[in-house]
Amino acid sequence: MEHTLYSFVGLCLLFSAVLNVDSASPSGRTPPPVNTPKPTIGTPTLPSETSNPPIGTPTPIPPPQTSKPPAETSKRPPQTSKPPAETSKAPPTMTTLTIQTTTHKNNIEDKKINLKIAHILEISKIGHIVGNTEYDQQTAHLRHIANLGPESLQLKLQAYDKFVSYNYLRLKLESNLHSRIAVVESYLIHKPLSKKCKKIYGKQRKELMAALNEQNSLKSYKLNLYSKPCRSDSSEDSQHEDYFDWWDWTQWFSFFSI
To answer: Which keywords does this chain's UniProt record carry (predicted)?
Structure first.
């Protein structure tokens, strides 16, 4: 028993010697011990700022960083200096609507007056218009006014009214002249007249016929002048006939002095 125990101890020592030989450094020297700083006994060590907080203390949550805006808000909003296409035009104001309404109304009235001018020019081609200088001037002026634009509406209305008045007076005077000419011709044909009265009525007829193609003012003047009857066709009243001839010439002088 003791021999077995000694054998076991001997084996253990042998095994221990082998392990020491394997763990030794190649140079056969033992490496110097590492100097490990030893804490000073009795000096309290303060925890560092970066040390972990004690267990059980709530960890504060840092606030979100605001120095850099979120990615979705980093882009600039679209410029609004230029409105969208559908809202680029300002809504019409009352003044704009009034102007548009007035313009539309003027265009309609302009078309109406142009039609009226064309109509009056067409129907006025009656009576003694050939060789009538005043009629030619009046119609030419009215045609010129009719060719103007809608902005000359008031001028067209005035020119139309003026021509209507002129043409009405022209036709009326021509009608009165024809009536007086018919009376004078009746005297010359059917009434026994003295030589002097025949001369007077013959002159009246000639002047009244010429007045048909003259201007309205001359028509009216001659109609008044040559509508007076011969005062007498007897020889004893010849002085009145001479007076009539003299009065006739004085009326002509007064007309040319106007």
So the answer is: Signal
Rounded to 10 degrees, the C-alpha dihedral 58/59/63/68 comes to -170
φ and ψ of 142, to 5 deg:
-65, -40
| 84 domain-assigned | no
Residue whose tokens read 């081609």: 125
Question: Can you say how many angstroms the Cα of residue 109 is from the centroid of all Cα atoms in its chain?
Answer: 19
Residues 150, 104: contact at Cβ < 8 Å? no
Asked if residue 120 lies in contact with residue 167, where contact means CB atoms within 8 angstroms, the answer is yes
234, 194 contact by CB (below 8 A): yes
Query: What six digits make up the tokens of 125?
Result: 């081609």
Q: Please report whether residue 78 resides in a domain.
A: no
Phi, psi of 91 (to 5 degrees): -65, 145
| Model pLDDT, residue 8 | 73
Tally of CA atoms within 13 A in the half-sphere of 151 that contains its CB? 1
Within 10 Å of residue 184's Cβ, how many Cβ atoms?
Answer: 23
Tokens 């002129």 belong to which residue? 166
Residue indicated by tokens 């009656």: 126
Domain that holds residue 211: 98-256
State the pTM of this model. Answer: 0.53
